[in-house]
Design brief:
The chain is mainly α. The protein is built from nine helices and no strands. Helices cover 65% and strands 0% of the residues. α1 packs parallel to α8 and α4 runs antiparallel to α6.
Length: 244
Amino acid sequence: MGTLHAFLFEVYPYVCFTVFLVGSLIRFDQNQYSWKSDSSQMLRKGSLRWGSNLFHAGILFLFFGHLFGLFTPHAVYGVLMSAATKQKLAVVAGGAAGLVCFIGLSLLIHRRVFDARIRHTSHPTDIAVLVVLWVQLVVGLITLPYSLQHADGSVMLVLADWAQRIVTLRPVDSAALRGLPWPYLFHVVLGMTIFLLFPFSRLVHIWSGFGAVGYLFRPYQVVRSRRLNLPPGHNQPPQPGARI
């Protein structure tokens, strides 16, 4: 059990991170036509609008919340708030966003599983990814009562130190995580597994979402008419039947 624990929290993160990056590059290079989310809106809208909007709003908040919460050094945010305050903020804001995401994701799963037309046109990985995300979300919500029991933020500091050591390639001591409650450990391992599955599922379209931000900063397109510099009244398109 000790060997498995050490593998999951010392080796497995680097395996997932490598597959995540290299796999995404290979898929983009070799199979760009699959780089999409396969929208089913044309088949039936139904609960898609509510489900999709609630899911994406919640999941984006949770993603960036985890990103900045785990990888921001304590010395940086410690100027503004204590670890205990940050823990309470994470529980309240994360709990609200998690509930919103849970409702939206449940609607999407129900739609894709119980709507015959959508189920028959869905790839098995589409449903599998939604189920994995749903389980991850439920386990994340289960951690909230445990977080309230550690209101001083001690568990959060342990997890943040582990995550920051992983991304900065510093030595990792998995023993520091051994005494944490099981929902935290399960949540971390399943989260890394989602990154492992990322290149092989529809989740790759997330890259395009971040890439679309570049359109906000691109130069304006200059569009010139082919009929410029003509006398007034001569720059109109020809009428049907007119002799040119």
